[in-house]
Amino acid sequence: MAKTITKLSLVARFWKWIHKLHRFLGLLLAVYILGMGITGGLLSLRQPVDSILSPTFHRLTPLASNESLTLQQAIDQAMFQMGAVTLNRIVLPQHKDQPLWMYVTPTDTENASVLEVSVDPRNGNVLDQRIPKGSFFHVIYELHTEWFIHRWGKAITGILALPTMLLMVTGLMAWWPRGRVRWKTRLSINRQSSRRMIFDLHGIVGAVFFLPQMALIISGFGLAFYLQFAALLQVGITGENIDPFPRPAISDKAHAPLQDYVQAVQTQMPDAYVERIDWPRRDGMPVVVRGKYPDDPFGRGEILFVMLDWETARILWTEDPRKPRIGLAIMAFTIPIHFGEWGGLPVQLFYAVLGLLLTSQVISGCWLWYQRKRSSRVKRESVPRT
Predict the structure, then answer these.
(1) Cα-based distances in Å from 350 to 21, 176, 225, 333
(2) I need a labelling partner for 274 at 20 to 30 A (CA). Which of 12, 209, 231, 259 fits?
(3) pTM
(4) Please, what are the domains in the chain?
(5) Which residues contact 157 (CB under 8 A, 6 or more apart)?
(6) pLDDT for the residue numbered 301
C-alpha cells in the first residue's frame, strides 16, 4: 500500500512539474514568441500585399508594338536610364506578364542604399524603383530573422527555438487526457466563467495546431543553422565534407553576355528555368545562377545553384536538387515548409492565421498565469492570521 501511494505521489509530482515548467517557459519566452508570431504572420502575407500596393513590380501592361530585346540589351538599356549604378542581382520574370527585377547600388553617392528596380524586359524601360531597406516588410523581416543584431541575432533566434519546442511539448502533455479525464472534456469549452473558457481555448488551440506550429519552429531552427546542419548531416551520413564554393583565379577581362549564363544552365539542365542571377562582388569571381524545376512538388528549387565563369560562362560547380548532396537535400525541406512555398496563397494565409494563433496563445497564457497568481494572493489574504 505504501509503495502504491509513493508511486502515485511521484506521478502527481511529475505532472505538477510539467505544468510548472510549461508556465515558466511561457513567461520566459513570451516576448520572443510574441514577436516571432506577429512578424511571421505578417511576412506570410508579404507577397500578396506587395502585389496590391506595388503593382508595377508584379505586372506588365500590354504594349502597342511587339518589342523584343535580349536579356543583355534589356539590362543595358535599364542601366543607361539609371545612370551611375553597380549591378548586384537580376531576378528574371517567370511569366510573360511579369517585369524583370534588378538590384543596383548607386555609385555617385557614399553609403548609398541598394535600389530594387522594376524593368520591362521587352524594351528595357525602368518602370519603378524603391529602397527595400527601411520599408515596412524589410523591418519586419529583419526583426523576425535577426532582431536587428545582425551577426548574433540569427543565432539567438535559432537557439531560442529549442526551449520553444519544449514549451509546446509540455503544453501538449499537460493538456492530453489522462486518468479520469476524457477526450470529450478536453475538447469542450466551459463558458461558465471567462477564465475557464480562455483556459479551455488555450489548450484546444495549442493541441489542434501543435503539428503545423511545431513544423514552423523546427524548420525555422534549421534555417538559422542551415549550412552547419547540412555539413553535419553530410559528414554523418556519407563521411564527406561540403565545399560548395569554387575559387577560380581573378580575371580582369569583360564578362560574358547575360544570356550566355542562362543558356549554359539550360543546356546542362534543360528542364530547369533560371530564376535569379547574382552578380559577383569583384570582377572575375563566379556568377551565381539560381533556378528551379517546374515539376518539383515541394518547391525545393532553392538549392539549384550553378556557379559560372565570369568570362566564358563555363559551369564551374552545380548543386542540383535532382542529384543533391544528402546533407543539403535533407535541409532543403526546411525552405518550403517555413516559407509556405509548397501551397501558394492558401498556405500563406494559413501561416498568417498560425502566427495570429501563436500570438493569442502567448497573450492567453500570460493572462491565465496572472489570474492564477491573483487568486493565490486573494486566498492567502483571506486566511486569518494567528
Answers:
(1) 29, 25, 25, 19
(2) 231
(3) 0.80
(4) 67-135 (3.10.450), 243-324 (no CATH)
(5) 32, 36, 144, 145, 146, 147, 220, 224
(6) 44
